């Protein structure tokens, strides 16, 4: 784009350019070629390589990045990284997982990048708060009108009741969820049952912990065959879970709303993402002139935003840049 306008491109993550300033949002490569902002450490958002420059992210995200990268070069960069500090970048909670951030970029025109987000407060974590902006870059994971999640507080009660009933019947309760984010929510939600953390869930929880963040749990012990609550990632190989004897299984995911349970006894539609109607409400309250969407049902969400809110909405495709001609 020419002049001092603003452009957005899907390239090295989401690239926002204003004049001589370039921002990489959830880039695949961190480098000094631009200002790099990482919203959280899920694999579809975290960088795969690190090659210098400052980094904007939360302390929790930095701990997770340090724990998840493999190469010596990346580990060395993250151990000595310069943290970003610019008046044009403001981070705020995204409400997706602990430590997840949204980023507001203000170079005269305000651009809000949500990353993955959830607007509902839960378990001591504040949900994402709408912010007035000129342009909004928003996720579309559940950007289809078919996705309306049950009330999350009510779902917490349903999950607790299922665990309690299962244990009272002399069976172990095994919950399967993503190791970073959802599993820590379940650990906090169900701490009264002294959850046992298994495999990558245990490793990830330990990775997240620090002096100011502790969870109440026990490591899974395959020698203990008493009825217990276990939180695990997947069933491949089971890695000792067969020692539990009688057990009931459940998966915890927003995708259970579509009736999927992946062969488990139960499926609970509990999500750390915004559903379609929360996305629409968030867009409305941010009151942007233009919206870009990525990661999911982009085409459907763009159409719905245009029709329901009368806001220009564009699915963000690789290499596409429309914002420059708009401002």
The CATH architecture of the largest domain can be named as 4-Layer Sandwich
Strands across the major sheet, in which order? 8-9-10-11-18-19
Please tell me the total number of domains.
2
CATH class of the largest domain: Alpha Beta
Average predicted local confidence, pLDDT: 92
CATH homologous superfamily label of the largest domain? Ribonuclease Z/Hydroxyacylglutathione hydrolase-like
**Percentage of helical residues?**
10-25%
What is the chain-wise order of helices and strands? EEEEEEEHHEEEEHEHEHEEEEHEHEH
Structural class category: alpha/beta
Task: Sum up the overall morphology in one term.
Answer: globular
Describe the structure in your own words.
The chain is an alpha/beta fold and 327 residues long. The chain contains 8 helices and 19 strands. It folds into 2 domains: 6-146 and 273-326, Ribonuclease Z/Hydroxyacylglutathione hydrolase-like (Metallo-beta-lactamase, Chain A); 152-268, Rossmann fold (3-Layer(aba) Sandwich), CATH 3.40.50.10890. Strand 8 (89-93) and strand 9 (101-106) form a beta hairpin. Helix 1 packs antiparallel against helix 2 and helix 6 (276-286) crosses helix 7 (298-309). The longest helix is centred in the middle third of the chain and has 17 residues, at 152-168. The model is unreliable at 319-327 (pLDDT under 50).
């Amino acid at each position: 784009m020419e002049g001092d306008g603003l452009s957005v491109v899907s390239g090295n993550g989401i690239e926002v350019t204003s004049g001589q300033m370039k921002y990489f949002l959830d880039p695949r490569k961190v480098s000094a070629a631009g200002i790099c902002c990482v919203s959280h450490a899920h694999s579809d958002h975290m960088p795969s390589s690190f090659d210098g420059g400052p980094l904007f992210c939360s302390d929790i995200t930095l701990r997770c990045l340090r724990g998840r990268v493999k190469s010596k070069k990346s580990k060395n960069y993250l151990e000595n990284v310069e943290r970003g500090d610019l008046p044009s970048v403001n981070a705020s909670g995204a409400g997706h997982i602990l430590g997840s951030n949204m980023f507001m970029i203000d170079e005269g025109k305000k651009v809000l990048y949500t990353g993955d987000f959830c607007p509902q407060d839960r378990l001591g974590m504040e949900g994402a708060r709408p912010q007035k902006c000129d342009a909004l870059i928003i996720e579309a994971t559940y950007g289809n009108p078919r996705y309306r999640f049950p009330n999350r507080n009510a779902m917490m009660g349903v999950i607790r009741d299922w665990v309690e009933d299962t244990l009272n019947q002399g069976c172990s309760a095994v919950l399967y969820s993503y190791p970073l984010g959802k599993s820590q929510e379940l650990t906090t939600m169900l701490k009264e049952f002294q959850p046992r953390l298994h495999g990558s869930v245990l490793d990830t929880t330990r990775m997240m912990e620090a002096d100011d963040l502790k969870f109440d749990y026990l490591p899974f012990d395959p020698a203990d065959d008493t009825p217990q609550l276990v939180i695990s990632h997947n069933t491949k190989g089971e890695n000792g879970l067969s020692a539990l004897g009688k057990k009931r299984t459940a998966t915890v995911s927003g995708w259970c709303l579509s009736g999927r349970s992946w062969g488990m006894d139960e499926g609970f539609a509990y999500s750390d993402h915004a559903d379609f109607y929360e996305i629409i409400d968030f867009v409305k309250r941010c009151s942007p002139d233009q919206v870009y969407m990525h990661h999911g049902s982009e085409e459907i969400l763009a159409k719905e935003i245009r029709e329901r809110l009368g806001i220009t909405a564009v699915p963000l495709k690789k290499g596409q840049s429309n914002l420059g001609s708009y401002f």
